[in-house]
Design brief:
The complex is a heterodimer of chains A (101) and B (498).
Chain A: H1 5-25, H2 29-54, H3 58-88
Helix pairs in contact in A: 1-2, 2-3
Chain B: H1 7-24, H2 31-49, E1 57-59, E2 64-66, H3 68-90, H4 99-118, H5 122-140, H6 147-178, H7 183-193, H8 197-214, H9 223-229, H10 232-257, H11 259-262, H12 266-284, H13 290-311, H14 314-345, H15 356-359, H16 361-375, H17 381-396, H18 402-429, H19 444-462, H20 465-475, H21 480-497
Antiparallel strand pairs in B: 1-2
Helix pairs in contact in B: 1-2, 1-4, 2-3, 3-4, 3-10, 3-14, 3-20, 4-5, 4-10, 5-6, 5-10, 6-8, 6-9, 8-10, 9-13, 10-13, 10-14, 12-13, 12-18, 13-14, 13-17, 13-18, 14-16, 14-17, 14-19, 14-20, 16-18, 16-19, 17-18, 17-19
The chains are: A mainly alpha (101), B mainly alpha (498).
Chain lengths: 101, 498
């Protein structure tokens, strides 16, 4: 069978939805963070596919930017989660309740 | 490429790195001076920016645009960063370690904002927004020994990363539909693409990503917690800089590039503006924590600013620029006062303001003026900004009656907001039996900043013409051929599509 643009986009949309579902349903900060990375990679897949089928390289260049920025974001994010874990001994969202109305 | 156009950003980045190096040779007792030094250096950069007036051009192909709008916002961000740096230096006792890194991070975030002001393509938009957001993850959680600060950082991290995921996916879809990342090319294609669902969904997701930055409904969930938990200078920069960066991108993307699409989104933008105003103002009423109260108030102000975007006319954009300028002085005045009070007493509650007029008349007067300006009472900047925004909305009422309702909702929001702003003023002057009446001393640099904020609020309120003229010129940039034709269409069209 011939793999066309729509197949890539379906996989990308599925990844994005799974990631979003993970962010909403999971309770552990690390797993939420993994799901967020999944969403970014879904966008990367879509960009590469569009780039291939649009016959221009802008999309692939954008993917490099996204990967780089995501790496920076992860390093800051994990450091933050570790700092929180040291203070709170927990990485669960239910425990983030210091500030409430 | 044209590196000379980026001289302001390069200067800021070099200053940030130099500050990190200088930190190595500075004894701990003198590190506060680095903050004042950085502020003075930024004043020089700001002064230099006036030499660039009237210049236009592009760098990195068309990705980086230098025009009136960009320059207006670059000056805006520089001014905000100067005041925030002095505030941070005042606040440095409350930051356990790494105060020099705090200053440099403010400068890096500033560089991101200045790049965002010039962003003219999606990669530039994305990278500059992320430079701001990732820096703010660190700034918000900078008080590592305070649980509230860490919690604010983690909440901002999760929701910020979620919004960048939406933004990136939206960019992918827009790129897929149009085949270009460039705003200039996109502007030419958007008319043909305005009925394509993929393109519209993409722009909607980009709007969601930017909506998070400006804390507009329904992406405002993070704002109160993050505002409350972060160190006061970080909150202040978040409230002014990050929000304005969102608005400059919104104006560029939706009021010039995607204009053909946005005309059909007037209802969406109007509902967003109206709900944001009501949500912010209604939720602010029961708040007792001052930073949280200002968090909800900043949501309400995002709503007022959205009025100007929803009006989709040059008058609306002018009003947004003017309002942001007034908002800068007002919010930074309020947060400077809070930072000084929190540094002295560690109380963030409204009740902590009791007897402030005896402890420090200057702080009491500044906070009162800031609240009055936020509420929008005549002689101050906040009033004239709201007036311009409402005027731009009512002008559109002739083409579509719902604009009148939008103006009515905004007025109702203003009336509601009197309640909590004047609650703060009452706490300053008419509290019963204040517990502590020891005077709060204000250092000279902080006093200069407070006077500058007061002067800004009064000047913009009493003599608005000059800035309105500047803002109008910035919204309608000089290269006349293409852009003038575009705005001429923008003025004519809301009537013609009805």
């Amino acid at each position: 069978m011939n793999v066309g643009l729509e197949h890539y986009l379906l996989v990308s949309a599925a990844l994005f939805s799974l990631g979003l579902l993970g962010v909403i349903m999971r309770r552990n900060l690390l797993v939420i963070y993994m799901s967020l990375e999944l969403m970014l990679n879904a966008a990367n897949l879509a960009l590469v596919a569009f780039s291939r089928f649009n016959n221009n390289l802008d999309g692939q260049v954008m993917v490099f930017f996204i990967i780089t920025v995501a790496a920076a974001e992860v390093s800051v994010g994990l450091a933050l989660i570790v700092a929180l874990y040291r203070k709170r001994a927990s990485a669960h969202v239910e425990d983030l309740t210091t500030m409430k109305l | 490429m044209n590196a000379a156009l980026m001289i302001l950003e390069i200067a800021v980045l070099v200053l940030g790195i130099a500050l990190l190096l200088l930190d190595l040779w500075t004894p701990p007792a003198r590190k506060r001076l680095l903050g004042y030094g950085a502020a003075v250096a930024l004043v020089v950069v700001l002064a230099y920016s006036f030499k660039l007036t009237g210049e236009t051009g592009f760098a990195f192909g068309q990705a980086y645009a230098f025009d009136g709008l960009a320059l207006f916002f670059k000056r805006f961000f520089l001014l905000a960063a100067i005041l925030v740096l002095v505030m941070a230096a005042e606040f440095s006792d409350r930051i356990a370690s790494g105060i020099s890194e705090f200053y440099s991070l403010i400068l890096f975030a500033l560089a991101g904002m200045m790049f965002a002001a010039s962003a003219n393509s999606f990669p530039m938009l994305f990278v500059s927004l992320e430079l701001i957001t990732v820096t703010f993850y660190v700034l918000t959680s900078f008080q590592r020994n305070r649980l509230a600060s860490l919690e604010a950082g983690v909440k901002y991290l999760i929701l910020g990363a979620l919004s960048s995921a939406f933004l990136v996916y939206g960019i992918a879809l827009v790129y897929g539909a149009s085949g270009t990342m460039d705003f200039a090319e996109l502007a030419g294609k958007s008319a043909a693409l305005k009925d394509q669902p993929l393109f519209l969904l993409g722009l909607l997701l980009v709007l969601a990503g930017l909506g998070f930055k400006i804390a507009a409904f329904p992406f405002q969930i993070w704002a109160p917690d993050v505002y409350q938990g972060s160190p006061a200078p970080a909150t202040a920069f978040l409230a002014v800089g990050s929000k304005a960066a969102g608005f400059v991108l919104l104006l560029r993307l939706f009021n010039t590039v995607g204009l053909d699409v946005t005309w059909h989104w007037e209802k969406l933008l109007m509902v967003m503006a109206a709900v944001t105003i009501l949500y912010g103002n209604l939720c602010a009423i029961p708040q007792r924590n001052l930073k949280r109260l200002l968090g909800y108030s900043s949501i309400a102000h995002a709503g007022y600013l959205l009025l100007g975007v929803a009006a989709m006319s040059p008058a609306g954009s002018t009003a947004v620029l003017y309002y942001l300028a007034g908002y800068l002085f007002t919010v930074l005045a309020a947060f400077s006062v809070l930072a000084i009070i929190i540094r002295k007493t560690d109380i963030e509650d409204v009740s902590g303001l009791a007897g402030l007029n005896q402890r420090s008349p200057l702080l009491a007067a500044t906070l009162t003026l800031a609240m009055v300006s936020l509420a929008g009472v005549p002689p101050l900047a906040g009033f004239f900004g709201k007036f311009l925004l409402l005027k731009s909305v009512v002008e559109q009422g002739g083409s579509y009656y719902a604009y009148y309702w939008l103006a009515a909702v905004a007025l109702a929001g203003v009336v509601i907001s009197f309640w909590y702003y004047f609650g703060v003023i009452r706490a300053i002057y008419w509290s019963k039996d204040p517990a502590d009446l020891s005077p709060i001393e204000v250092s000279l640099p902080a006093r200069i900043c407070l006077y500058a904020c007061i002067a800004g609020m009064l000047f913009l309120g009493l003599f608005p013409n000059r800035l309105v003229e500047n803002a109008r010129a910035a919204v309608l940039p000089p290269p006349p051929a293409k852009i003038a034709e575009k705005t001429a269409v923008a003025v004519a069209s809301p009537a013609s599509i009805k």
